[in-house]
Amino acid sequence: MSKWKRGLALAGAVFLLVIFCLPMYFALTGTFSMGKFMASLAGALFAAVMAYAMWLMYRLLNRKRLEKDGRRIKNVIFDVGNVLVDYDWKTYLKDFHFPEEEEKKLAKEIFQSDIWNERDKGLYDEEEYIRRFIEKAPEYKKDIRRVLRETPKTIGTKDYAQAWVQYLKKRGYRLYILSNYSEYMLERTKAKMNFLKYMDGAVFSCDVKEVKPEPAIYKILLEDYGLKPEECVFIDDREENCRGARKLGMHAVRFHDFKQAAADLEALGVK
């Protein structure tokens, strides 16, 4: 709640308290008279009725605003990783039981490297990316190949994903995917994405050779499917990707967990 709203609420509470206490004040100070008592009682009742009326009006106007926003937002756009699927490379890497020094090196030179993010753009074939990873840590050449070969194991579908998109679909929203995803990973994990059948469209970075948060990939989605930015809400776990959507006029919700994201969507009228 904003400061001015809190101030108004406090002032209103104080006013009502004063009005309700006036009859007792007159009685205790010896200045009681039937006229004063009836006036203060009428004032207290009037204040209570007005407060209730204002509360009802607020609820009505707020509901209309949410309904208006809900109609305005027609398209829900999802990121995939850490929104509709789990992406847990840390547990995956630990399961190899490499020595601590090697594990840290592989984490840095594979999953935390710029090459990993570039891989999502799909500019080269998989073997070229493997070669570039190996250049960073040639002493672990064999293990790098093994880790990369099995990276689809980092992906697991969220238990709420299918039910969530089904619900939104039944509510009449059009659903889309906008995700940074490498070709190698997409080919080997697409079968796990049971929510894809409910989507009205999808743009994966490896297919269009562009990545978030660059404006081009958002524009491709909007133009390919004829979407108006102001009618879209984008859900992503990374703030920089949400900012990219907002810059083009879309609403955006940063995803932390399902309950929070659902509440943020409801605040926009999407429910």
Rg, Cα atoms, Å: 28 Å
Distance between the termini: 21 Å
Q: What portion of residues is helical?
A: 55-70%
Secondary-structure-based class equals alpha/beta
Strand line-up in the sheet with most strands = 5-4-1-6-7
CATH topology of the largest domain: Rossmann fold
Main sheet specs: 5 strands, parallel
The CATH architecture term of the largest domain is: 3-Layer(aba) Sandwich
Top-tier CATH class of the largest domain? Alpha Beta
Q: Sketch the topology as an H/E string, one letter per element.
A: HHEEHHHHHEHEHEHHEHEH
Please tell me about this protein's structure:
- Helix content is 59%, strand content 11%.
- By secondary structure, it is of the alpha/beta class.
- It has three domains: 3-69; 72-86 and 156-267, HAD superfamily/HAD-like (Rossmann fold, 3-Layer(aba) Sandwich); 87-154, no CATH class.
- The strands form two sheets. The protein has a five-stranded parallel beta sheet, sandwiched between helices.
- Strand 6 (232-236), helix 12 (239-247) and strand 7 (251-254) form a beta-alpha-beta unit.
- Helix 1 (3-29) runs antiparallel to helix 2.
- The model has no long low-confidence stretch (mean pLDDT 87).
- GO terms for molecular function: hydrolase activity.
- The chain crosses the membrane at residues 7-26, 38-58.
- This is Hydrolase of the HAD superfamily.
